[in-house]
Fold this protein.
Amino acid sequence: MENSRSRHRRRTGINTHIDFARKTIDGIADETGLKLREAKNHFEAQASRDAAVEASGALKTVAVSLIKIANDIRLLGSGPRCGIGELKLPATQPGSSIMPGKVNPVMCEMLIQVGAQVIGNDAVITFGGTFGNFELNVMLPVIAHNLLQAIELLTTAVAFSPGAVSRAWKADVAKCEGNIENSLAMCTALAPVIGYDKAADIAKQAYKSGKTIRQVAPRSFRLGQGKARSTPRCPQPNRTRHRRRRQRGGIKTPKFAVRSYGDLICKVEITCFTPLTPSPTASPSQSFPEMTRCRIMPPVHPSC
């Protein structure tokens, strides 16, 4: 063990050759191939390990992201019948030792465990960085051990991670379409058309009856009933007034717009009534309020 006097000599360079630090650093750099240089402030370099703490924090950030990705892949690949089952993961081992025929997401679980270890390493390095008492941090061995281990673990895990073999993934198209079709979230696409309350009622009816939104929506609130009209449905006191309003821009010809809401395609008839341009001598009762009428045609599926 070094006593306080020998440590003081090492920090200040007392009783050593004037070129000792430079030559030692050059020799290590030549042997390892690393670009090493002497610290400008020896006291700061020996009292704190902030660079190691910062590097460890970057590794922890990578580990957290990899854990999130691996968890998503693991859950999307759960199944094949009782889970989500939207991803078909390649079998990298014979299967479960308990359940015959089961394929475990071992690569995802490996990556998650590596991430957990790297997070633990970062905790040790962070704690070691706090022990820069006065002019010397004595926690360098444990900091170096955990930092090097974290780098090695992440490098190896990423090389065999699910992302490295993503070409072997396959999406279960039938399962994905079935989950979308059975989802009550499809009523969200109807909210801009029929309103929030009616869309919520459709979702509740579909849940209670065990049917899909597509099956319940046409029967509820009579969506899509009737044919599109070629003329606006509005009161016409007489043809002369109607002709005058059309000439002055009072009535616009109905327009049809195709709106796509998720998996539903609706044809909407839009008729706009703009107010008449009042003359200086016209009374307020001779103007018409501005309004817009929309009528939804039967929603259809793109494949229909």
